[in-house]
Automatic annotation (TrEMBL):
PANTHER family: ENVELOPE BIOGENESIS FACTOR ELYC (PTHR30336:SF4), INNER MEMBRANE PROTEIN, PROBABLE PERMEASE (PTHR30336). The keyword Transferase does not apply. GO terms for biological process: Gram-negative-bacterium-type cell wall biogenesis; peptidoglycan metabolic process. The keyword Ribonucleoprotein does not apply. This is DUF218 domain-containing protein. Signal peptide: none annotated. GO terms for cellular component: plasma membrane.
Amino acid sequence: MFSLILAAVLACSYVYLRRKDPRMLRNGLVLVAACWFAVTGVSQVLAQWFPWTQWITLGIVALTPLAVVVLAGFLISNGVRMMRREGRSLGNLLSLIAGLALLGLPLVAALLVLTLNPVAIGLAALLFFICSYFGVVFVVFLAYAVAYGRMKHTITPAAVVILGSQIINGKVPPLLRSRLDKGLEVYRGVSAQEELAPLLIPSGGQGADESRPEGAAMADYLVAAGAPSQHVIAEEKAKTTAENLQFSAAVAQGQGRGGAMVIVTNNYHVLRAALLSRKLGLDAQVVGSPTARYFLPSAFLREYAAILTEHKVLHALLCLPFVALTVFLTTALVLASS
């Protein structure tokens, strides 16, 4: 019963924190914790009322290694598909790397333990602690990325900013087209209700392998799709998501549209874009467009890696207790074996 009470408290906290500012990753931590205690509480109640349900719980726990193997197989298969369809860049290989790691790291830990060497056992313990920590962080990130991506924008924007991605032969590929179509949907939904239509700002500079700025190609697509040319102002200098947001905000301000913005990107990218918009102090909400399913595993892993990199000092500090615990356990094993 205590678990259910705690789950209810955490659920209320999640609702409050999300209403206060949905662009916070801590909301995901509270959400995952609420779900965990809710499942735990329900399992405990069912075990009291229907004792046979304990066997179901034990069965689920026993099948966990099989689930890990199945997940690893799926990621490896997806990584091979990504490599064939999208090329061999590091970002496209992330699901393959993650799948191999899921299979390889438990084997490495087991081999270290089998040596019966205290230092090797300590390294296996550290490997377990670190992998568990980053696994939990990934679950928090993924859960809240999905939750945030399903939120509807609640503001009337002065500008709709569409984040760029790579163009091919000067044209808009399907992934970027999805963003532009979503941006048009937001634009039309607002302009049909308001006297002053929002400004459409397609944002993206020119990469080394691109024949023109992304923003220019995106602007051509928007106008060809029916957006009034006077409502489309391209931003053509940004190289990163942070620059997309900063430079687009400056364009909006320069056009007298310094109010709230709706930022449009693909669904896997919404959370990081939202976190960055908050960090930059922008009054903005982020909405996501659909993405091909085969692309999502690597895309979410890439976003997760980017968020870890942006907060690497914090995560390093949070891992220090695991290092200290490992040193303590290793020292205890060495003393016990001497």
